[in-house]
Amino acid sequence: MIESLAYVGFVSPRAAEWASFGPQVLGLQLAPAQADGVVRLRMDDAAYRISVADGQHDGLDHLGWGVAGPAQFEAALQRVHAAGCKVVREGAELAASRCVAELASFSDPFGWRQEISWGQACRQNTFQPGRPMSGFVTGEAGLGHIVLISPDLARSEAFYLDVLGFRVTDEVRFMGQKIRFYNCNSRHHTLAMTEVPGMVGVHHLMLQVRSLDDVGTALDKVQQGAAELTVTLGRHCNDHMVSFYARTPAGFEIEYGWGAVDVHADESIPRMYDSGDIWGHQPVGGSWHPPGIMRPIGAGPGALPAIFGDRK
Fold first, then answer.
1. Does the predicted TM-score (pTM) go above 0.90?
2. Domain spanning 139-296: which CATH class is it, in words?
3. Domain edges within the chain
4. Buried b (16+ CB within 10 A) or exposed e, 220-231
5. Could you report the per-residue pLDDT of 279-293, keeping only the tens digit for each?
6. In 3-state terms, what secondary structure has residue 286?
């Protein structure tokens, strides 16, 4: 049902810092300013892919899932409604701010705002990266992947598989944790989840570039002090991504990578890996960093505990 992660929105008291962090460190393009003051960033010819609005605490505001067209949009809303979710058909004003033709919203079992849309605005041949680079892997595969922390993996998985139509790609068991990976297109995974009892959170957002040199250039900037490096360069076992992780001004981490394998739904057989990496991906400072966006279920967005989550 879901075809891609079309866009994603965060809130942060340091939202304004993204106007420089996005272009200078990540190579994103700053989209034209709108009256709402939200920082919007482009990574291809879509009007924008990532937004960061001003807020009192770092948090995930919404996940924007894309479907193929109006018929698929209506079918998706019927399916979500049949699952017992309250679906809101959003008005033209919000759809225009998201740069989509039609938009609806609902919540997942633990309160994350989900949005479904079709008709993401495309401005052909207009993307200009914020610094010299080869560009990002997007298109039908969407903007990248996101990793969520759930208090109940089985319950979350039932929602994302049975309601939204994701498929299990594989599983990694590492350092006492189980991480599940899910696909909805040719990207190895668009969503991943791990369970931390009593907690909800976001660990990282992955952006995939078209050249290994782009990874190295960004890593140089981070190591020169443009951002906090949290996990060193390495290659994952399951998707073969060569990447590093850095903390963003909004608390969560960016995985910045190249070289991930694709999956094909008719050929994919879920596998289990008992190691996270082929090489590298060591925590900076010798211990894993706690997720920057995490709180007890039912608590306010500022209630961040000092416990550790997995990085992938």
1. yes
2. alpha beta
3. 4-118, 139-296
4. ebbeeebbebbb
5. 999 999 988 888 889
6. coil
Reference 46, options 160, 144, 143; nearest CA is 143
List, for residues 39-95, the tens digit of each pLDDT value: 999 999 999 999 999 999 999 999 999 999 999 999 999 999 999 999 999 999 999
Q: Give yes or no on whether 4-118 and 139-296 have one common fold.
A: yes
CB-based burial of residue 297 (10 Å sphere; 0-12 exposed, 13-18 middle, 19+ buried)?
middle
155, 250, 235, 195: CA torsion to nearest 10:
-20
Helix (H) or strand (E) holding 119: none
Do 258 and 215 meet the contact criterion of CB atoms below 8 Å apart? yes
Give the pair of three-digit tokens for residue 48: 């924008």
Q: Could you tell me the two tokens for 251? A: 């608390």
3-state secondary structure at position 100: coil
Domain range 4-118, CATH architecture:
Roll (3.10)
